[in-house]
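Dear U.,

For the methods section draft, I wanted the exact inputs and outputs in one place so we can describe them consistently. I've listed the two proteins in the order they'll appear in the manuscript figures. Please don't edit the token lines directly; just add comments below if something needs changing.

First protein:
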Amino acid sequence: MRILDRSVYVGPSLYAHFPVIRLDLDLGPLEAWPTGRLGNGFVGELAAALPGLAEHGCSYKQPGGFLRRMREDEGTWLGHVLEHVAIELQNMAGEEVTFGKTRSAGAPGVYTVVYEYAQRDEGIAAGELGLRLLSSLLPAEIRPADSLPDGWSWQEARDEFIRFAQRRALGPSTAALVRAAESRGIPWLRLNDQSLVQLGHGKYQQRIQATVTSRTPHIAVELASDKEETNKILGLLGLPVPKQELVQSEGQAVRAARRIGFPVVTKPYNGNHGRGISIRLTTEEEVAQGFVVAREHSRSVIVETFLEGDDHRLLVVNGELVAATRRTPGHVVGDGEQTIAQLIEIVNQDPRRGVGHEKVLTRLELDAQAQKMLERAGLTADSVPEAGQVVYLRSTANLSTGGTACDVTDVIHPDNREMAERAVRAIGLDVGGVDFLSKNITESYRTIGGGICEVNAAPGFRMHVAPSEGTPRDVAAPVIDMLFPSGVSARVPIAAITGTNGKTTTARMLAHVTKMGGYTPGLTTTDGVYIDGQRTVAGDMTGPVSARMVLADPQIDMAVLETARGGLLRAGMGVKEVNVGAVLNVQADHLGLKGIDTLEQLGELKRVVVEVATDCAVLNADDPLVLKMAGHTEAKNICYVTMNPQHTLVREHIRAGGRACALEAGVNGQMMTLYDHGGHIPLLWTHLIPATLEGRAIHNVQNAMFAAAMAFSLGIKLDAIRQGLRTFDSTFFQAPGRMNVFSEHPFKVLFDYGHNAHAVGMLADLALRLDVTGRRIVVLAGPGDRRDQDLVAIAKAVAGRFDHYICRRDDNLRARASDEVPRIQAEALRAAGVPDGAISIIPDEQEAIEAALRMGEPGDLLLIFADALVRSWKQITKFKPSAAPSTRPVLHSAAPPSRANGKEARGDGSSMGANLELSSPPTVHAAPADFSLEGLIRDERGVRMAPESDD
């Protein structure tokens, strides 16, 4: 039984719309051992190890259903059991996760196990610990070898897992704030492994770290940490504070205690969480010892008057008291029979107590601090206290050391309430906790006395949201209301775009349109992350990491996310939902990779983008697979995009008041038209959009329609949409590798990154629609990880449309032989009727492009499909036609190409182009003898500006 592969999905994926982990699990021989065969002994031991499994309903959808399923005659397989164990382990660590599903992966004994997680590392560890637990319960004769380390103990492993999980979990206070934000619909991002969290997106974001917020003044935190200054400031305002002195030595501490008067308290100058505090010190020896304890946490120590009374925490948010709690240190109560050690064990049996912050209360520990408290009371762990005798194990009342909390918010005296609010305002904190000692919180400090020990920045919320007694208080909500007052936005509009082809161009168009609309867009594409039009990170940035990168940027107020197949398969989407999601098309590409073998499976994967769209799903009505996605979105609107004005379904959709973007013929050309709520909105003539090459680039017409539909659905004004489309062109600067045209040579070059049959075919169609007086030459390739049939399909997409074909391969061979890809494509061209003399095989990309450039003559059109975009574009722009050899190949006029080969003859009977006639049909062409790349962009070799657009 072993894990073959693991994927961690951070957001919506094929499996769920929330974070899940997928394991490919091989049971091996254990496929023959379902739980029914393992017997009730196995099930009973597992239930004893994980009592919470009794609450799992499984297919029976009621508590006990999963245990019932395991005890049936056949039972269930261990892959399914692991799913439930991984979930329950996280529940034991304090997480609320419930989702899981297990399916056969096809091969015998191999299962796909999917389960929800709350923290990435904890979720992974839960799966691994689950495997070990199951292995430990198996009969020795079938237990997998090396499945358990020597000396492995379930109890130790369980407790260590809980501690591991809690070290990585959000603290109780941060978690409460996150839950409050979620209840308000405010998105959040965790920015580190501790408690630094971003609430909201882009320029609307606020940050918290525990209960310190982005609005907490630094000087207020410094003052709260300086206990001496805090005491002085509060005293000057007439607030009740104890006398205190700051000391740096034992002698000074003793002398200060004499002046103040016994009993006293010693505490670190800038400590927190009750660390290093000693209370009720009545002798000089105790003061000296207390100084030593405090000195472990701070160079300076405070000696102050000991105040009688219960310890209260008064929480003030935005100037108002929102909760009050009476805290009691960890203790046991004697019964006259049990020892203190036994009483601790009894207390720890309370199901509310757990490890660390796992549960409402923390287990009592009989550690060095507890032993010291017992020693001061003249007791030991073996002492038997009298019935009713309270034995304290800590001097401070922190919940993290076993203390308890009782809510007293409803009974606090108004004077005490006002006192706390004044104290926090005096220090300047937006969120502050006042430690107040009082014999009776229901009576005024003016009457019975009492005093403020400390004012705390970053006060903990655990005691208020989950007191051991009294009413829980939602203290996080006032903080969120302070950070995001009513009417203040927390979200930026998010648009996500996916599809096989056109994603990058459409995303760039949309980002440009939003900028024309006055927004500051963040854009993710295959060549980098752009903030307000400036690239901030280079590389393929179409996955969840780049999405979060954009949303964390404090400058943006609009996010445009190109979302690729590879990112969806590896880690899911980077956001829980988007305002507008678009699927441009589903075409054959990357099939046979990572479990996606058919177009239907590819469509199901890309459908995730519109499944999580909330406002509008923009769908290509001309693509049957995309059209079907309309039944899988819960977006408020569906906007169809069609280039067929006679589309029956779209027509009915429009008549019903639906939204659409259609291409309509007019006297002046073709008009992009929007429909919405019965309105007919002529938007823009296609020939006025530079990226469409006067309307000839049909694929960019469609991309522009998607950009317009998405912009309209995002609420962008029509004039901004028109202005954006009219000022967006397909230069290498604005859209590298997306139909870039270079016209400064005697011939024209059309440069593109197309790498699948659909994309290559669209560019080939465009090449035929352009006015060309000379020849049409194409440099062709295909990624090495594609199936042979995909490489053949790419070749067929151009076959018969050009006068000469140069076949090459990418720099990254992807396990192919050096000339394997070009040979496959050359053979496909021959099979399609292209003569040998019109085919050249030049494997190296730079040599192939150089050969095509040298071949070019006035009036020719070169269509170059490139992989290393920056390097190849520089090679094209720096090429010097005059430097080409004077003895070019002799070109002979050829008869008009036959229609059987897919080429059209001119009306006057002359040839559209000329063929390269060679003395013998070579299969592999080397670069010309005088050809050298020395000094030509050598520093760019192998650097790819845009990796595969769908990865």
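Second protein (the one for the lower panel):
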Amino acid sequence: MIRVIPPALTTSRLVLALSAASAAFVVGALVLLALSWGAPLPDSWGFRGYHIFHAIGFTAVGAIVALRRPANAIGWLLFSAGVVAALGGFGLEYGIYAIVGRATALPGGFLGAWLGSWTWVLYVAGILPFVLLLFPDGRLLSRRWRLVAWAAVISVLVTTALMAFKPGPLQEAAYTENPFTPLPSSMVDTLAAIAIGSILPVMGGASCSLVIRFRRSTGIEREQIKWLAFSAVPLVAAGFVSAVLPDKLGQVLFVFLLLSVPVAVGVAVLRYRLYDINVLINRTLVYGTLSATLIMTYVATVVLFGAILRTFTSGSELAVAVSTLATLALVQPLRRRIQKAVDRRFYRSRYDAARTLDAFNVRLRDQVDLDAVRGGLLDAVHDTVQPSQASLWLRR
């Protein structure tokens, strides 16, 4: 007798098995991290153990989305990224413990360090273009975008090969040399040129796909794309800063902002509190602009009053005090002005609705005729809520 296993049961078992493997790698990496915490290591990108954060975030969200939406490729992308991150994090921590953290080296340390030095490419450089291409339904916008998808595959494979086989110190484990260097130097240079030259075209093409999808979308799909954009824009900015400037702050910021991608994708695909994105975007625009304006105002007033008062006082305490008071006094007026500017530019319907209600309130104060009030109220409802039909009954 042939036993047929339902697809849902097969999916659950697969997710459970890979989640258990990812959890085992994460626990092992944490134990090794604790055992070799004081090991002397050269400076490297980001901070030690950041792969573990990514493994937990991507695996958890990916598992939930894969179970709830098994036909959507987005969940499996996030899930596989988490498993790969867990494997790479375990390899790096085992390499440190086996090579640097002990007086006598353990077998397999070089293999673990080598494995962790290139797996990050698969879930950092590999997942982002495919999320942009496939989000939110797990399918390409059209067959024409297969070219961009294949270009992304080639770019990821070339970059992975470059990181895995280039000679010299390992990318994520600079305390040891690469034990696997089968490629000639000319081929390594070619791979480097292809990897660097393909980043912008691939990411640009994937971003264009998402922009086109957003312009064509309506309703739920548009709100889903807003969630992804809300996490992707600061991530791209942090990635640019961490790539251009050798600054730890930008690198750490990129590490944590990358975790916002699976969270935003999970919220969008599962449609949990989907429409809260409009509030988040509004508050981010308002308070981000307000914070930047207040900081610039504070610095400018400190410099200005410091220069003016320098001839009368010996220190800058008075200038700081005056600048602080001036900045505090500007908080509420600036917030109201910025809120109106944001609503007028990005939320025109809300801005027009508020103006309509304000105008109706002004007319209502001077109006005593019930028929006129009824007509004005219905006009205000039609202009703000825009219902298909509205009626009003008044008791006389």
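Candidate sentences for the figure legend, describing the second protein: Confidence is low (pLDDT under 50) at residues 1-6. The longest helix spans residues 277-309.

Thanks,
Y.
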